[in-house]
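Data deposition worksheet. Section B asks for the primary sequence of the deposited chain exactly as it was used as input, without tags or linkers unless they were present during the calculation. Section C holds the resulting structure in C-alpha cell form. Section D is free text for depositor observations; keep each observation to a single sentence. Incomplete worksheets are returned to the depositor.
Section A, Depositor: J.P.
Section B:
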Amino acid sequence: MRIVMIGAGYVGLVSGSCLSEFGHEVTCVEKDPARLRALQAGMVPIFEPGLDEVIAANVRAGRLSFDSELSAVARADAVFIAVGTPARRGDGHADLSYVFTAAEEIARHLDSYTVVVTKSTVPVGTGRRVQEIIRSARPDADFDVASNPEFLREGSAIEDFRRPDRVVVGCVSERAREVMREIYRPLFINETPMLFSGRESAELIKYASNAFLATKITFINEMADLCEQVGADVQDVARGVGLDKRIGSKFLHAGPGFGGSCFPKDTLALLKTSQDHGVGSRIVESVVAVNDSRKLAMADRIAAAFGGNLTGRTVAILGLTFKPNTDDMRDAPSLAIVPALKAMGANVRAYDPEGMEQARSLMDVDTCADAYEAMEGADGLVLLTEWNEFRALNLVRVASLLKEKLIVDLRNIYAPEQMRSYGFRYISIGRAQVIPAPAAVADSVAAE
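Section C:
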C-alpha cells in the first residue's frame, strides 16, 4: 500500500521505516530542513538500536523515501499524522497545533479515498476534530479518520513494532477497517491481536496504558521507601509481587522516577482531560506529584550520602538519559538531579554513552570521554541510568579512582554483598545500606 507519514521524529521515523519493511511504499514528510537533509543523506538523527539498518535497507529497496512536501498524499491509501504533541506551557494540556496544521495541509492534497490516521498521542476527541478540519476545508473529499496509537518503547522500538502486544485501531467505517487490516496484515502471521474500537476509545487506550504503567513505577518506588524503613529488600518484594499473573513483573523496578517522551506528558494530559470533564482522577494526580517530588528527593539522598555537605565536592554521574539505549533526555531524572546537586555546591562530572550532546544543551554539566574519566578524583559515584556498560565496571579500578569508596546506585545495578567485599559504602534503592567490609577483606579482594 502507499503510505505517507507526516513527521519524521521518533514515532514517525520508526513507524514509517517498519511499515516500509512490511513491503509498503512509504514517504516520510519532514519539515525541518536540517533533519530532512540528514535523512536524505542516509544519516539517522536519533539513536535507536537497529533503526539505521532498517532505514538503509528500505531506502535501497525503493520502498522508503523522505520529502518536505505532501504531494504524495494525492495517491496515498493512508496518511499517518505522527507530529509532536508536547505538553502545552502553562496548563499541561497536549499541544495539538502541529496535528491540526497537518490536517489542514492533508485536506489540500486529498484526491481519492484516503484513511487519515492519528499516530501521535492525542487526547480524546482529537480524531473528531481532525475530521471536522478536513471536512470544512474539503467538503468533497472522500476520506475517513482513524486512531492508531503507538506503543513503542525507546531502545526496543523496532522489535516492538515487529512483534507488538496488540494493534489498536479506532475508526467508524468498515472501509477504513479494511485499509488498516491490510497495512498490518504482515503481523497476522505472528497472531498479533488487532483491536478495533471507536476513535475515542482508541485515543483513551493510549493514555490509560501509559498512566497505568507510570502508576506501577510510582507504586514500587514508594514501596522501596518503605522497604528501607522496615528492613525489606525491594527487589524481593517486586519479584514476589510480579509473579502474580494478575500484576506482572514489568515496570516494577525501583529508581529515581520515570521520565522520557511519554509518561510525564501523557499522565499530565490525562489528568487535564479528566479535570476538563469534571471527572476525578486522584490516582493519576498522585502519580504526577509523587514522581516530580521523587527526583528532587534523590538529589537530597545523594547529598546525605556525602555527609550532607556538597560544597566543593566532586560527584561523578554515570548515565544522563531517562533510560538506556536511547539518546532521549526528555524529562530525564538527571535534568532535576544534576542542577539540584550543583545548587548545593557540587562539581558534577558525567558520562553517558549517547546522551551527552543533548545534555549539554539542556543543563550546565561537565561531560567526560568515558566512565572512568568521570570517576577520576571524584568524591563519590552516582549510577543514574542502567546502561549495560555500567553493569560490569572494573571495581578495583573504580576504587582506585575515587577519593572515597562511595557509590550511590539509583538503579540497583549491583549486589550489596559484592560492593561490601570491595570495601565500598554502597547506597541503593529500597535495600539496606552497605557497610564496608573490614579493610583486610577488601584489600584481599582488590589484590585478586
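Section D:
The first strand starts at residue 2 and ends at 6.
The two ends are 62 Å apart (CA to CA).
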